[in-house]
Write a structure and sequence with these properties.
binds zinc ion, disordered C terminus, alpha/beta, binds alpha-D-galactopyranose, 682 residues
Length: 682
C-alpha cells in the first residue's frame, strides 16, 4: 500500500493549475496527461482568493468543475487547502495577517507563504477554508490525500508573535527564574523580573548582522534557540488546525504538507509526528551532487522512522528560480526519479503539469510546455517514465531500505551549532553530517537518518557528527547502546552543551566523556587555508577546521596529529565500553580519510556494501513482502560496467543475469533488478 489512501500502485503526476487557464485548455490537458500516463494531480494549491471573495462567501463552483473533470478522466487528486498565500482583501481588512520582518518592518500584501502564524485572522480563516473544502469534497472517492498549505516556512516578529512567545515560554518554564537560569541572563545583567520584559530575539534586540561574515548572530543563544523552536511550533500549530478541521469530514484520508528537505527553519522531525505521511519537494541546484540528494531523501524518509514518502514536486527539466536554468540532460529526470524511489518514494510528482504564462514561474519547466504539444523532449521523457511506472505498478510500494548504519540528525543541534559564538564560523552542521554520509554512500552502505527520539537498537553503527548539544538523558541512551555492543562515532566539538546551550562543566566532551574515554582540553579552530595533518594506518591525511587536543582516559589512539605544538597527541580514538566501542574523530579531514576509515569500521562491524560499483554508480535496495530490489543508478555521463554479485532479473524487460555477469549502464542509465524469486511485472 502506498502513502496515498488505499493506493496499490505508484502514482505519477504533479501540481496542476487549471485556474490559470480556460476550459478548452483543460480538455486538452486531460488528453495529454493520459498520453503521459499521468494518474494524479495536486489541485488547488494557490486559490484562496478565488475560493473566498470575502469573510463569509465561499465559491467552489470553478473548483467543482475541475474536480469533476479530473474524476471523469479517471485521475486521482491530492487536494490542497490553498492557504499558502492569503487573499489581498484579507491583508487589507485584517493587517494582523501580515508578517513583520526581523528588523521590525511590517510587510504589505505580496508574495506567498506570507501569513503570520500567530495572527488571529489566519488562525480563523485558514482552518475554516480547509474544513469547508473537506466538507464539500468528502464524497469524491478519487481524493487520495490532503495537501495543507504549501512549503511552510519563514518567521514572523510581530506583536502577536511576541505575545504568543511569552505564553509558550510560560508553559515551557513555569517560572521566570527558570527562564533566567536557562538563558544564563546573569551574563550582562539581562535578568527578567516579569514575562512582559521578554521580547523576541531579532535585529532590534539580541541579534545583529556580523559585517565580516554577513551572518546573523545572537548574543544570547538560549532565547534564540527557543525562538526557533517557538516559530516552528507556531507554524506547526497552523498545520494542525487545518489537519483537525479536515479530519472532521474526511477522517480516513491522509494529510500531508510538502516539506523542503533540510530546511533549517522548521523542526521537521517534530512536524512528522503530526503528519500522516511525509512528502517533499526536490529541487537540487546544478551544484548538488547525487550523494547530497540521496542524503535529502534519506533525511525525509527518516523523519518519521523510515517510512516511505511521496516526492511531491520535482522539475521535469529546468528550475527557473535558481541562478541558472540548466536543462536536465536526457535521462536525468528519469534517473533522479528512480533515485527517489530507491530511497523510499512511493509516488513521483512534478511541479508543474502546464507551464504558466505570467509571473515568476513562467520559465519553470512543465510537463506541457508553452508550445502546448506532446512533441517535446521533456514530454517524451515524462511519457517514457510514465509507461515504466505503470508497468512497475505496486512492486516497490511500502519497501523498506534496510540499513545497519544510522546517522543522527537533530534540528536543535543544528540551530545551536550555527548560533554558537565561536569556535569557528566554518562550523556547518550539514557539512559535518555529509562528511560521514558521503563516505557511506560512496561505499554503497545504506544509511538511516535518525532523530534523538529514535531507537538505536536496529543499528550496528550510529554516527553523530558534531553532536555539540547533548540533550539531557541522551547520553544514557548512547551508553546503553554501546554497552550492549553498539558502535558509536562522534566528532570534534561534541558533548559541549545541554538543550539550553549551557556548558556542561567538568571537562569536554561533558556527559560523553566516560563513554568516549577522552578529555578534550582545548580545541584549535583553524582559519581557511591552515592545516595540520594526521596519520592513520600509515597514510597521512589533512586535519583542518577543528583540531581537538585531548588526553586519553581509557581510549586508544587510532591516529595522532603530525604538526604544531600538539604533534604526537591523539586525533582519532576508540574506547571499549561494555560490549561495544565508542569512537571520537577529533578533527576534520578529507573524503579519502572518511572513506578509508569507514570502510574499516564497516568491515569490523560486519556491514558490507550492497554491491560494489565504479565511482558515480549508486547501488540501493528496497525490500518489501514481495521481494528485494536492487537499483543501480549511473549518475555520470559515461557508460559504466558493474559486475553483479548475485543473480538478478531485470524488472523492466524480464532478462535474467547470472552472478558475476557484467552489465553495462549507459550514461545516466538505470537498472531495476529483482531477485530471481521476483515474478517480474505484468
Ligand atoms: C516550490 C513550490 C511550488 C513552485 C516550485 C517551483 O516547490 O512548492 O509552488 O513554486 O517551488 O520550483
Ligand atoms: Zn507574527
Amino acid at each position: 500500500m502506498s502513502c496515498y489512501y488505499k493506493e496499490t500502485k505508484m502514482l505519477y503526476g504533479g501540481d496542476y493549475n487549471p485556474e490559470q487557464w480556460g476550459r478548452e485548455v483543460w480538455e486538452e490537458d486531460m488528453r495529454l496527461m493520459a498520453q503521459a500516463h499521468i494518474n494524479i494531480v495536486t489541485l488547488n494549491v494557490f486559490s484562496w482568493a478565488s475560493l473566498q471573495p470575502d469573510e463569509d462567501t465561499y465559491d467552489f463552483a470553478r473548483l467543482d468543475e475541475i474536480m469533476q473533470l479530473v474524476r471523469a478522466n479517471g485521475m486521482k487528486v491530492c487536494l490542497a487547502t490553498s492557504t499558502g498565500a492569503h487573499p489581498a482583501w484579507m491583508a487589507k481588512r485584517h493587517p494582523d495577517i501580515l508578517r513583520t520582518e526581523k528588523d521590525g518592518r511590517k510587510r504589505k500584501f505580496g508574495g506567498r507563504h506570507n501569513s503570520c502564524p500567530n495572527s488571529p485572522t489566519y488562525r480563523k480563516y485558514a482552518p475554516r477554508l480547509a474544513q469547508k473544502l473537506a466538507e464539500h469534497y468528502r464524497d469524491y472517492d478519487n481524493i487520495v490525500a490532503w495537501h495543507v498549505s504549501n512549503e511552510y516556512g519563514g518567521a514572523c516578529y510581530c506583536d502577536e508573535c511576541q505575545k504568543a512567545f511569552r505564553v509558550w515560554l510560560k508553559k515551557k518554564y513555569g517560572t521566570i527564574e527558570e527562564v533566567n537560569r536557562s538563558y544564563n541572563t546573569a551574563f550582562w545583567g539581562h535578568t527578567f523580573y516579569d514575562w512582559d520584559e521578554i521580547v523576541l530575539p531579532d535585529l532590534q534586540s539580541e541579534h545583529f548582522m556580523d559585517e565580516v561574515t554577513g551572518m546573523e548572530r545572537t548574543m544570547f543563544q538560549g532565547i534564540s534557540l527557543d525562538y526557533m523552536r517557538f516559530n516552528s511550533d507556531s507554524i506547526l500549530d497552523c498545520f494542525r488546525l487545518e489537519y483537525d478541521a479536515i479530519k472532521k469530514f474526511t477522517p480516513d484520508l491522509p494529510v500531508t504538507t510538502n516539506l523542503m528537505t533540510a530546511y533549517k527553519g522548521l523542526d521537521y522531525q517534530k512536524w512528522a509526528k503530526s503528519m500522516d505521511f511525509v512528502s517533499w519537494d526536490n529541487y537540487p541546484s546544478a551544484a548538488d551532487s547525487p550523494d547530497q540528494i540521496a542524503f535529502y531523501h534519506d533525511l525525509m524518509r527518516g523523519l518519521d522512522g523510515q517510512k516511505p514518502f511521496v516526492l511531491m514536486e520535482q522539475a521535469p527539466s529546468v528550475t527557473n528560480w535558481q541562478q541558472f536554468a540548466k536543462l536536465k540532460r536526457p535521462g536525468e529526470m528519469r534517473l533522479m526519479s528512480y533515485q527517489a524511489v530507491a530511497h523510499g518514494a512511493d509516488a513521483i510528482q512534478f511541479f508543474q503539469i502546464r507551464r504558466s504564462i505570467g509571473a515568476c514561474e513562467k520559465y519553470h519547466s512543465a510537463v506541457i510546455d508553452h508550445v502546448g504539444t506532446a512533441d517535446t523532449r521533456v514530454f517524451r521523457e515524462v511519457t517514457k517514465l510514465g509507461e515504466e511506472l505503470e508497468k512497475i505498478g505496486g512492486l516497490f510500494l511500502d519497501g523498506k531500505t534496510p540499513a545497519k548504519t544510522a546517522i543522527l540528525f537533530d534540528w536543535d543541534n543544528w540551530w545551536a551549532v550555527e548560533y554558537s559564538s565561536g569556535p569557528s564560523v566554518r562550523l556547518k552542521y550539514l557539512d559535518a553530517v555529509l562528511d560521514y554520509y558521503k563516505a557511506a554512500y560512496a561505499l554503497n552502505v545504506p544509511v538511516d537518518i535518525i532523530s534523538t527520539d529514535h531507537s538505536l537498537e536496529p543499528y550496528q553503527v550510529v554516527i553523530a557528527p558534531l553532536l555539540y548539544m547533548v540533550k539531557r538523558g541522551y547520553e544514557e541512551k548512547l551508553k546503553d547502546y554501546v554497552r550492549q555492543g553498539g558502535n558509536f562515532v562522534t566528532s570534534y566539538f561534541s558533548g559541549i552543551v545541554d538543550e539550553h546551550d549551557l556548558v556542561d562543566c567538568g571537562g569536554y566532551p561533558g556527559r560523553l566523556r566516560e563513554l568516549l574515554g577522552v578529555w578534550v582540553e582545548e580545541s584549535d579552530a583553524l582559519p581557511f587555508g591552515e592545516q595540520n595533518a594526521i596519520t592513520y594506518s600509515g597514510t597521512r591525511y589533512p586535519a583542518d577546521l577543528m583540531c581537538d587536543l585531548m588526553h586519553l582516559e581509557g581510549a586508544q589512539a587510532l591516529a595522532n596529529y603530525e604538526e604544531d605544538f600538539y604533534a604526537g597527541t591523539p586525533a582519532v580514538t576508540v574506547n571499549k565500553y561494555g560490549l561495544g566501542k565508542a569512537y571520537y574523530v577529533g578533527t576534520h579531514s578529507d573524503e579519502m580519510f572518511y572513506q578509508t576509515w569507514m570502510r574499516e569500521l564497516f568491515a569490523q562491524t560486519g556491514i558490507s556494501p550492497i554491491q560494489h560499483t565504479p565511482a558515480g554508480v549508486e547501488a540501493a535496495v528496497r525490500e518489501n513482502a514481495g521481494g528485494r530490489y536492487l537499483f543501480l543508478l549511473n549518475h555520470t555521463a559515461e557508460e559504466k560496467t558493474v559486475v553483479l554479485e548475485e543473480s538478478y532479473k531485470d524488472l523492466l524487460n524480464g532478462r535474467t543475469y547470472a552472478k558475476q555477469e557484467e552489465i553495462v549502464l549507459e550514461a545516466r542509465g538505470v537498472y531495476l533488478l529483482g531477485g530471481c524469486k521476483v515474478q517480474g511485472i505484468k
